[in-house]
Amino acid sequence: MQNIQDDRVYIFHGTGDETVRPGAAEVLEDFYAELGISDPASQILSKTDLNATHALASDHSGTPCGDHNDELYIENCDYERLKRTQSSTDSKFPNNFFSPFYMLDHLLGGGLNLPVPPGSYLGQIEEFDQEEFFFLDPHSYSMNEFGC
Question: What is the predicted pLDDT for the residue at 82?
Fold first, then answer.
């Protein structure tokens, strides 16, 4: 179990999730702490207070927060509105909560920039050859030869 001592863990569980039992996030936190994560307070990041179902919580796309969709699994919990109407005392989420951003930021060690609002992107999408990343034909991995 020495391999996980410095690992980072992200746990998200919406209060409207009927797929995973309530309390599962807390059990996972305890499980990872027992496995030997050296500093659970800084290495485990949990978000369990949103009314999302079994989905990824977004701040701008998907079905309405709490309205499960078996095909999309993305819910728009309109965090900008929540941020304006509720005062947050959660110091782990100092800005607007956006699940994909906070998950990646935590797992990669912090320091990422918050994403820009939809429609205000400044870069351009470029195609690249991703065949070099696969041992077999990319189609055997459900991928295309090119990525963006």
Answer: 46
Burial class of residue 117, CB neighbours in 10 A (0-12, 13-18, 19+) = exposed
Higher pLDDT, 100 or 27: 27
Contact at 8 Å (CB) between 103 and 13? no
Residue whose token pair is 């819910």: 75
For 48-57, b where at least 16 C-beta lie within 10 A, e where not — what string?
A: bebbbbbbbb
Does the CA dihedral 121-75-43-35 come out positive or negative? negative
- Candidates 9, 2, 1; CA nearest to 109 is 9
Q: Could you tell me which residues come within 8 angstroms of residue 27 by beta carbon, excluding any fewer than 6 positions away?
A: none
Task: Give the global pTM.
Answer: 0.69
Torsion sign (Cα): 47, 53, 58, 60: negative
